[in-house]
Structure formats: C-alpha cells, structure tokens
User: What shape does this take?
Amino acid sequence: MATRAKSNGPALVGREDELAELEGMVDAVRAGASRTFIVSGDAGVGKTALVGQICATASLDVLVLSGAALPLTTLKVPFQALRSAFHGAAQLGTPVPFSSNAMVEARVDSPLFVDEWLTTLSSSRPVLLVIDDLQWSDPQTLDILMFLIAGPADRSLGIVATVRSDIPTENQPLERWMTDIRRLPSVEVVTLRPLDRPATATQISRLLGVPPPQSLVTDVYAHSAGNPYFTRLLIEGMRANGRRFEDGFPPDLRGAVLRSWKGLPKAAQQLTRILAIAGRSVDAAELRTVARGTIAQETVLPMLQAAATAGIVDLLPDGTYWFHHPLIAEMLEQGMGGEERRSWHSAFADAYESSLSLGPQRTSGTIASLAEHHYHAERWASAYQWTVRAATEYVHLGNWGDALRMFRRAVELTDKAGMVPEILHELWEQVRNAAFRSGDQKAELEALESLISLTKPTAQPLETAAWLVRRMHLSMSTGRSFFDLAEMERAVQLSAAHPQSWQHALALAEYTHAALWLDRDAGAEGAAQALTLARLTGNPIAMSYALTAAAMVKLFARHPEEAFSLAKSAADEALRAKDYWGYLHAVAWLANSQESWISQEYADVLHIAREELARHEAPHSYISKIAADEAGSFLGIGSWREAQTALRIAISLDPGPMGDVSARLTAARLDALQGRTQDAFVHLARAGEVNDNTEAYLNLNFAAIRSEVHALAGQPEASLEAAMTGALRPGPPPTMCEWLLPLAARALADLVQNAKDEGTPTAGFLSEVVQLEERFPHVFNEPGEQSELYQRQVFAFESLYAAELGRARGDHANADAWIHTADACRDASLAWEHAYACQRAADALLLQGHSAKAQASQILRRGLQLARDLQAVPVQRALEQLADQAKISLTPITRPNPEVSNRHGLTAREATILDYVVAGRTYREIAESLFISEKTVSSHISSLLRKTGASNKFDLARRERKKSDG
Assistant: This one.
C-alpha cells in the first residue's frame, strides 16, 4: 500500500541504536543509494514497531510502500506481500505490478517489470519498500526481492523487511535466501534482542503512567524476559499502583504464547508439559526416565525435535532442552491440576535421588532441583533436608543469592517438616549472612528482626549490640527510619560489659555517627574512644566505622585534610571486611572532605568508588546507591549527560530502596530542569512511595527538589510549601539546604507577579516576603563545608536569595542584583542557576527600556548559550521569547572571512565589525563588545558602506548573508 510518511508514531523504548541505523539507511536512500535492511527477532520483540517508527518519521519526500506476508494455510496467493505493498499505488499514474492494467503490459511474475517500475518511481523521489513477516512469503516473492536487492546501487530505493528468528527454517527457501543476501553489498541484517531490565521498566512506566515498583519490574521481567509484546499483555488491566500483576495470565497472552505449542503432536505436547515441571533444562535421557510408562521411550527424542522445530524449545549447547521463552513453561505447568503437578514433581525427585545414589558426582543444580521437586510434591521432611543441603552447597560456591533463597525456604519448612524450634536461630543467622553477602537489605533486616526477637540480650550482649547497629543501618537503607540515637545508646550499654570487644568499638562509633547527624557539636570524645578501641581489636568492621566517625569529627572541626586521610583508611577497611554499607559511608565522607558535593572533584571520588565496588563484585544495591549520588553531583555542575549515564547504572538492576529513592530524586530534578515536569512528578511519586518518611531523612533532598519541580511546573504555592517544610524542620538542615530559601523567595516573587497580572491584591504575599527575610536573613549552609568553592556557592545562593526577594518587592534596581547573581553562580559552578539568573537579568534589564538593551542582549545571549548546552528548555524558551519581543538578534558572531576582506579591501577592524553587523548587533553592542565608542563604530560602518556599495547597514547585512548562503 502506498503511503506518505507521517510523524506521529509513538516513541520506542530501548531501540535508540537500531533507530539510528535505520535512519542512516533512509538518509543513504535519500542521497541516491540503494540499501537493504533486514530486522530479525522473536515474535513480539518489536520488529514491526521499529520499522513502523521509521516509516512514520521519514520526511514527506519518501514514498513508503508497505505490505505484510500472511501465514496462509490452504490458499496460495503468489506475491501476496508485494501485492499488499503495491495496492493503492495506481494513483501514482503508472501501471502497478500485479494489478489488472499491469497484466496487460507485462507478465505478472516478471521481476523485470517490478524492477523497472520501482526504478522509475525512485528517479523522482526516494522509495522505501517495506515487507513485514517475511517468513510467511512465498518463494516467488523472495526471488523478486533478491532481484531488486541485487539491482543498481545508484537508485533511491530502500528495502526493509522483518523476519521472525524463532521459526526454524532449515532446508527452507527463506533459510537459503537469508544466507545468500548476506553476501550482497549494501545489505544489513540486524537481530532485535529483547529489552533489558531498565528499558522494560521504562515500558512498564509508560503503560501504567507512573513509575512501577521495583518488585513489579522484577516480576514482569522474569516472566516476559524483555519481550515488549508479552510485557504489554502482562501489564494490561493492572491498576496503576499495582505492585504485582494479577494471578493467572491474560487470555490474549496465553493465546500468543501457546499458539505454536497447540500445533504439536499430542505426544510432544505431553512431553513439553513434563519438561515444564522440570523447572530447568534437561536432556532426553532424563525425560525418558521420568516419562517412562507415559511416553514411548523411542519417541522422546523425535518429539523433542518436533518441539524444537516449532520454536517451542531450544537445543542448548550442552545437549539439554529448555523452552524458547520462559512463559511457555510457566503456562504449561499452570495448566495442570494440582495432583498431576505433585505426581510429576515426585517422579523428578525420585529420578534425581536415584541418579545421586549411583555415583559420587553431584551438582548444586541437581541438589537444588531435588529440593524444589520435594517441596512442590509436598514431601516436607525431604524438602527441608535437600533445601538445607542446597543452601550449604551454594554457600560453598559463593552463590549468595541462591543461598539466601534456599535458607529462607528452610525457615518456612521448619514447622511443616516438624523441626525443633531451636533450629530457627541458626537458620535465621544463615539467612542474615546470605542476605548480607548478596546485598538484599530487606531480607537481612527481616533476619535481624527475627534474631533479635529470638535472642535474650543479656545472654548474648555482644551479638545483640552488633545486630542493633546493623539494624539501624538497614532501617535507614530500606526507608524505615533515620538514625536512632536511643538504639545506639542501648548497643553501647549492652557491649560495655566487654569494653575491649570490637562490638563495643562499633557501638561507640555508630553512637557518635548518629549523634553527629543530630547535633554536629557532639561526638568528638566518643569518636576518639571508638577509634582507640577499634585499633586495639584490629577488627576491620569496627575500624571502618570508627575511622569514618573520626573523619566526620575532623571535617566538622574544619580539618578536611585529616578527615580525608581518615575516611580513605575507613574505606580500605570496609572493603577488607566486605562491608559495603560501611564502604559507602566512608566514601561519602571521603568526598565531603575533598570538596563540595557540587563539584567535579566530588563526582570523581564517587565515580572511582563505584568502579572500585564493581571490581570487588559488590552487590548491585550498593553500586546503585553510589551511582545515584554520583549522578546528583554531575547534575549539579551541569554535566547532565554524565548524570544520565550514572542514573542508568543506578537502575539497571533492582537498585534497593535507598538507591531507588536517590536515583528518582535526581531524575526528577533533571527532568524538571530540562522541561519534562510531568516525568519529574512521576519520579517524585515513586521516591515518596519507596520512602514515605521523607522529612526524617536529612541525607535526602526531598524538600528542595520538590520545591524546584513545582517552581518549574508553574506551581508557586506548592513550591513555597515544599521549601518552607524543609526550612522549618527541627534539627540540622537537610541535603540541598542552600536551595530552600532562594526557592521560597522565588515562589513568593512568582505569586506576587501572578497577582499583579491578574489584578488581585499583593499585600499578603509582600507581607510573607518581609517575614521570610526577617526570620531567615541568610541561606542555610553545611557547617562542616568550608572549601573555597563551597564558600563561593553559599555566596551565590545568598545573591540568588537577595535577587528573588528584590524581584518579589519589585525593586527597580534589581537588574544589577541579577547580573551579580549570574556572575556569582558562574564562579561557583552552579550551571543551572547561572542560566536562570541570566534569564532574570535580561528580563530586568529590558524593563529599563532602550538604554539597557545592549547590556540585556549580552547577558541574554550568554544565558541562552548555556541553556542550550544544558538543554534547559524552560530557560531557553524564556530567553528566546525575550529576544523575540525585544528584537534582539541571536545570530552568532562568526570569524572574519578573509575572502570578503580581500574582495572589498577591508581593514581587519572593518572585517570584524562587518561580522557584528551581519549578526544583527546594534551600534552600542558593537562598541561595548570591542571597547570602542559608538562614534568610531559609525565611522567604520560608513567606510564599509562605501567599499561594498551597500545603501545602509541593513542592506550591508543582507548582501553579506546572501553571499555566505550562496
């Protein structure tokens, strides 16, 4: 069907590279080259959507001829896909292949006619021939496509086809065809892979309209394996706030997944149902053993091969078979009755126990499978026995995630298997250790809660003290509560009976840590005592936390060099202990002692630390948290691309609660600053969902980011409320405290301006302005931060606060305050605030009238260049609107052209002034830029008019632009 490309296709998720390749192919076709692009991939992976996006976004000079092959069974329609593509092209005024008028002039099956017709079309405009589902095409269509692909290389013809890779084509025409075209020049075959986890999370977010909980992403990704179509079907009908998809599968999904399976022979269907119960890949011999008496032994291998041919299972390199997509296995198992499932699980368990009894060989996989089959067969005693054995085997292998899963299963089985209650303490300790090693903070916290409840503190004071410390850490990391000084006091009291123990040193260190967060003048004596004791014990955990507490004390006492050395040692000790919570804690203060968190130096410290964690193969939850903090630092200095990269790392796997919150807050700020406020609110909602006790967390920047997002969304009331919530909370100021008062003043200034625009009273808002300034004469700042850069940043925020207060009051001389603020923000590496201050300065200057236009033009262009670099769309649009209203040229100044100078005999100064004239600069702007008088500028322009023959300045600019364009 002939169609004109339209630019209304939905944006795809996770296909940026493939889209870029296809766009490059279309550009080559536009330039007069013949190109072919084959997109291969599983059903539902997004081949049609990808190609459709290219067709939709191609410019109107591309003629798109799009058709699809159909999986016909009894009918045979030669060239069906091509007929579909060419249908409706009669409007083009030429005989169309396979139409009745074409049959009069040429043979219907003539490749020459099709080739000549497309050559004629492509001589006047680029042509894109698109064939979807090529695997259903007849051999005649493949022959004509081969002929076209091998045709002239210098015609504007592009051929794009999609083909399924999950349908085996051995000894079939398509298999040979694909092999042959790969040898031809200008042919590219791209295999479209399933989406990764972050892209799946983005897709789910778009389907639901809100960021999905990580539990939902994990659940859906485990089932869909990144197949976009399956993901969509799983999500359809879910509530926007759902945390898991509903039990059972949607009928559409079940039909899509099992369509090919239903065409298998009955014996193959039964065999694959048994394979689904296996839960993992198995070979034909295992299936023969389990299926004995149900399926004839000699048919097992042929039935497996039939299932492989149908794309239901894959033959793996080790000779075992497993399903091409995990959903097939799950649906087949779910389709069995409970008794049937238990029967087959029992058969697998018996077969595996027999195989283990025949020889000494054993694998963790076989033992784990035995545990699973006994569990699902409801043989509780055997399930407990093999579950513990499997967990122990995983511990020996260092596979902590699977060990955690098995130990938690063992806890569940203690009652069912009739185990003595005393075994629970040991099992929960194993759960805690495995969770600690795997980085599953919620599971570790659950284990700690159980251990603390099962233990009499006076009987095990040291263990309990260490558990209390760890519980405080995990409560913070999972969003349950902030630092608990009373809990740490209890840990100190419990461990005090053993004053030389490492647990007592740890408790003292973390009591100091909590005290310093809540009162930064406290804790010096406790830090010194903890460090002395930790050094005596030599325990790396106690050493790490004691060194970090000492670093905090030194930094608050304004000794950053000593703090840096202590924090560096603390990080080394934490790595030695494999205590990654302690490592992040130490690195945070290492970076704090180096420079303000809005600095390249701070970002670099976190970047190096993240790479160090990766080298140590730390759990992703810890890598995620440090990547999120790294992103926040990069964003603060305007390195938004680096921030995006770090954010992607932060959420590439399940980030853990605190990593998720930190990443969402930074993502919200980035989206708002670049004009995507709806996305920003979505991220804020997700951050609040994970951590609903937002105001208790001093290390999170909820208040400032909420206020900034509302400000950029044009919601000053909400912005003011968020800023004041942060400003008025008791205790030490939270992270990003420096932003709070400038944002509050900005909100009030916006409210005053809105009231003026609407003709409503402003007195109430102006009264709030006075109250704000009286109550908070200066911005908040971090007491321990005294670097030169941080002092410049505090000065910049003071300037921003004063300028916003002046804007609210309507000060006539406020332009100077905004220019001063822009310069201060530039010197303090506050890129986003710098661009915003330039916007306000330009606006204030233009209100002064023509006399300030030249100065306004300069700072407007300065801010616009920065806003464009930052892609700060709100500021960019505001500045462009100001430029348009004030008739300020935004054409950049170019370097003098030697040819122009030689042609007209211009002096170097005249050539420079000519470039300013072409760029639309006024006499005053030129004079101020070149540090000469306006009279001198006028004299030079008179000389330029005489030498070039132009009648006036505008004619001079027009002539030079025309010559440059030509």
User: Anything to note?
Assistant: The chain has 47 helices and eight strands. The CA atoms of residues 544 and 572 lie 8 Å apart. The longest strand covers residues 157-164.
